[in-house]
Design goal:
12 helices, 39% helix, globular, alpha/beta, Aspartate Aminotransferase, domain 2, 13% strand, 383 residues, Aspartate Aminotransferase, domain 1
Length: 383
């Protein structure tokens, strides 16, 4: 099976894990702090503003806690978004308000965001679809103008930039995901960025049981009774550990070559699908933008999209659509929500395999199978 996503792991990752084993310290420790510092350097931020967590989802939930969301508050986000974001908002009692996206690029514009703002809007969340920064600079400016907190879910955008600035640093809070299917993988894991130093310190406390001071070995150097607890607020344990951080450090080092390979796959698709009747490839990047090439998507007539996906699966080519619109999910469904761009994109879009382990022959197989399937089903549908 040719997978949509697939991690790339090797001897360097094994060696890093062996070093952690040999140290006999598996939990949150020096390798975790080193990974935070290295990732901070990668995005051009201060190390103290970053916190390695056990998942990107934990970062989203932590972000909503930092914002102190509650009943009566609203958070605007595109409907094309992973469900974890809406869950994190709704869990606080606040209301997710879904905005539309541009149907070809699947990112919202500043105008889409602005139309969804109300006096109850406390924050805006954006997702850089497939790694494309989208309209992030204008959205950030809009949020600043309106006094609304901007949260970036940069799960797709680990190496994406807009005018030389890393995605994730435009907002007040940002989250990256390093799960097993991302560009940079740690098995499970995520990174939280908090611009405000006081809020960043608060995030560290909330991420480890609400403890203002460690009650373990580290606390022995600052407290006569280091085993006693100093808890000023409720928290949970969502911190990362040295095992997964060791993987992340190696993966971060190989990130440039991973992006280069993904770019090559995307360019091959562009070339092989150019001029194919009934197939629309992703839009070109805006000037000054770079992408992480997390998704490569094609669009076709909604009448044949599902049949094309089934035909490719029969040939061991797995495709999918991320992310199913949240305004159609039963728990969030709103009958009066009209998002035509989102609906158009959701019914016509298919993600093709793209990852750094995808070979040239596999890339050609996918493109050729897609062209043939689209042609076949267009003919049978009389399109």
């Amino acid at each position: 099976m040719i997978n949509v996503f697939q991690p790339s792991l090797g001897e360097a990752e094994l060696a890093a894990l062996s070093e952690v084993f040999a140290s006999n310290w598996l939990g949150h420790g020096p390798r975790t702090r080193a990974f935070e510092a290295q990732f901070a350097d990668h995005i051009g931020a201060e190390a103290d503003s970053l916190l390695f967590l056990n998942s990107g989802t934990a970062g989203l939930f932590l972000a909503t806690e930092l914002l102190e969301l509650g009943p009566g508050d609203e958070v605007v986000l595109p409907s094309v978004f992973f469900v974890a974001a809406a869950n994190a908002i709704a869990a606080t009692g606040a209301r997710p308000v879904f905005c539309d996206v541009e149907p070809h690029g699947l990112n919202p514009t500043a105008e889409h965001i602005e139309r969804a703002l109300t006096p109850r809007t406390k924050a805006v969340m954006v997702l850089h679809y497939g790694g494309d920064p989208g309209d992030i600079a204008r959205i950030a400016a809009l949020c600043t103008e309106r006094g609304v907190t901007l949260v970036e879910d940069a799960a797709c955008a680990v190496a994406s930039t807009a005018d030389g600035r890393a995605c994730g640093t435009f907002g007040d809070i940002a989250v990256w995901s390093f799960d097993a299917m991302k560009v940079l993988v740690t098995g499970d894991g995520g990174m939280l960025y908090v611009r405000d130093p006081d809020l960043a310190r608060r995030a560290r406390v909330l991420a480890y049981h609400g403890l203002e001071r460690s009650s373990g070995f580290a606390g022995a150097r600052v407290s006569a009774r280091w085993w006693e607890l100093d808890v000023q607020g409720f928290g949970r344990r969502v911190i990362g550990n040295d095992l997964t951080a060791a993987l992340g450090t190696v993966q971060l080092g190989r990130l440039p070559e991973s992006i280069d390979r993904r770019r090559a796959v995307a360019e091959t698709y562009d070339e092989l699908l150019a001029g194919a009747e009934g197939i629309r490839v992703p839009p070109p990047l805006a000037a000054g933008h770079t992408t992480s090439y997390y998704f490569y998507w094609v669009q076709m007539d909604p009448l044949i999209r599902d049949r094309v996906a089934a035909s490719l699966l029969e040939q061991d080519v797995y495709t999918t659509f991320r992310y199913p619109p949240l305004h159609r999910v039963p728990i969030y469904e709103a009958g009066d929500t009209e998002l035509p761009g989102t609906d158009e994109a959701a019914d016509s879009t298919l993600l093709l395999p793209i990852h750094q382990a995808l070979g040239d022959a596999e890339t050609r197989k996918v493109a050729e199978a897609l062209r043939a399937a689209v042609a076949e089903h267009r003919e049978s549908a009389g399109i």
